Amino acid sequence: MRIALIGAGWAGLAAALELVAAGHQVRIFEAARSVGGRARGLPLARPDGTALLLDNGQHILIGAYTETLRCMQLAGVDVPAALLRLPLALCQPGGSGLQLPSAPAPWNALWGIVRARGWRWSDKWALLRTARAWQRAGFACAEHASVADLCAELPARLREDFIDPLCVAALNTPAAQASGQVFLRVLQDSLFGARGGSDLLLPRQDLGALFPDAAARWLQARGAHLETGRRVQALAAAPQGQGWLVDGAAFDAVLLATASTEAARLVSQCAQTAPGALIVPLCDWAGATQALRFESIATVYVQAVPGAGGRTLARPMLALPSHAQAPAQFVFDRGVLGGPPGLLAFVVSTSQGERARLEHQVLAQARSQLALLQAEVVQTVVEKRATFACTPGLRRPGAAIAPGLWACGDYIAGPYPATLEGAVRSGVQAARALAG
Ligand SMILES: Cc1cc2nc3c(=O)[nH]c(=O)nc-3n(C[C@H](O)[C@H](O)[C@H](O)COP(=O)(O)OP(=O)(O)OC[C@H]3O[C@@H](n4cnc5c(N)ncnc54)[C@H](O)[C@@H]3O)c2cc1C
After folding, report:
1. Dmax of the chain from CA atoms?
2. Sequence-ordered alpha helix ranges (H) in 222-354
3. What CATH number does residue 213 fall under?
4. pLDDT tens digits, residue range 219-247?
5. Of all atoms in ligand 1, which is nearest to the CA of residue 265?
6. Are the CB atoms for 288 and 397 separated by under 8 Å?
7. Which atom number of ligand 1 is nearest to the Cα of residue 60?
8. Is the Cβ atom of 39 under 6 angstroms away from ligand 1?
9. pTM greater than 0.70 (yes/no)
10. Which residues span the domain enclosing 158?
11. What's the rounded Cα separation, in Å, for the pair 213 and 219?
C-alpha cells in the first residue's frame, strides 16, 4: 500500500517502523525541521558560544515501557548505553521517601514500603492496606473516581509526599482531577507488573538520539520517504472512494500521527468536502478530539557548581517537596546523565504562571531545598500542551476514523496516560490495524 504518515513524533515513527517492516511504501510528512515531536533534542548555544544539547523537556521512562524499548532496539539504539536503569526511588533531598529494592513484584513494593524512610508505621500500614485493596479489586475502580477519591483514606502526609508527586509524574494531572482508573493501571503495570517494570530508565543521551533520529535513519535506509519542514495543509477523500488525498497527492491510506489539535483540524476540514457517508464519522471523531483539554510542563535548566566527580545531587533524580511557591516536583542531575557537570533539570508538571516568576521560584527551591547557593538559569522550556488532562471518565477518540483513515498518538483511546509508551503502542497498533 502507498501510505501517507503525517507527523514524526514517537507514535508516527513507531508506526512507520511497523509499516516499512511489513513492506509498505511509506511517505512521512513532518512539520518541524527535526523529528521527535514533544520528545526531541533541543540544541542551544550558551552565551559564551559553547554548544549545549538539551531536550524540549526532561523525560523519564520506566521498565514497563516494553514497546518503546523494543522499537528503540529495532531502530538500532544501544538501549543499555542510552538509558540508566535504577530501581524506582522517589526520595527527597534529605533521603526520606520510597526506594524499591531489586526484587520481583509485589515483593519489591512491599519491602520498599516497609523500609521507606521518614514515614510513620501508621503511614506504611495504611499504604499497604490500600495497595492490597486495589490489588484485590483487580486494580479497577469506578469510572468517575479521581486519584484523590481513591486515596482519601490515606494519611495527609502520605498523599502529599507520595501520591501527589507520583500522580503528576505519571498523569501530569493533579490528584483531585486525575483519573483513578488510569492511575491504577499505571500502578498495576509498573509496581505490580513484571520484574523490572517499575525501574526508572533515565536518558543518558538527548531525546533525539534516544529513538527519533535512529528511527529516521532506519526508515530512510529502507526506502521510506521522510520530508521534514513540511506541514500538511489539507486532507481530502479521493473521488469514488479511491483512498485519500494529502495536499493533493493520492494515497491508499493515511495515518494521522500529529498531536490531537492538528489531527482534529485536518479531519474537520476534510469533512466539509467529504461524500455524505463519511461526514458523520469524520465530524464525530473531530468533535471527540477537540474536546480534549491540556496540561503544561515546564523544564527549567539550571547550572550549578558541581561537587566531587561531577555529581551535584545525592541521586540522579530527586523528588522535591512542592507547593505553589516551590513548583518543581523533580530535579535531575544531567551531569551524571551524559550532560555537562552541574547542569540540573527541574521539572514543573501542570505548570502555571509566567516564566520569569517560575525561574525565580525554582532558583529559590534550589537554594532552600538543595543548598545550591550559586545557580543560574540556562534555559526554560514551557510546553503548554504537553499532555492531555487525564481526567476521570474521559472519552478519548479511537484509532479508526474512516475506511483507510487512521490516527495514532498519545491521546488515542488506550489504557495509559499521555506518555512515550502510550504514543508508541498506539502507533504500532494503528499500523497493524491499517495494514492488516
Ligand atoms: C515537557 C514534556 C515532558 C514529558 N515527560 C514525559 C515523561 O517523562 N515520560 C513520558 O513517557 N512521557 C512524557 N511526556 C509525554 C510524551 O512526550 C508524549 O506523550 C509523546 O511524545 C507524544 O508523542 P506523539 O507522537 O503522540 O505526538 P507528538 O510528539 O506531538 O508528535 C506529533 C508530530 O506531528 C507533527 N505535526 C503536527 N502537525 C503536522 C502537520 N500538519 N503536518 C506534518 N506534521 C505535523 C509535529 O511537529 C510532531 O512532530 C512529556 C511531554 C512533554 C511535552
Report:
1. 70
2. 260-271, 276-290
3. 3.50.50.60
4. 999 999 999 999 999 999 998 878 999 99
5. 41
6. yes
7. 8
8. yes
9. yes
10. 88-197
11. 10
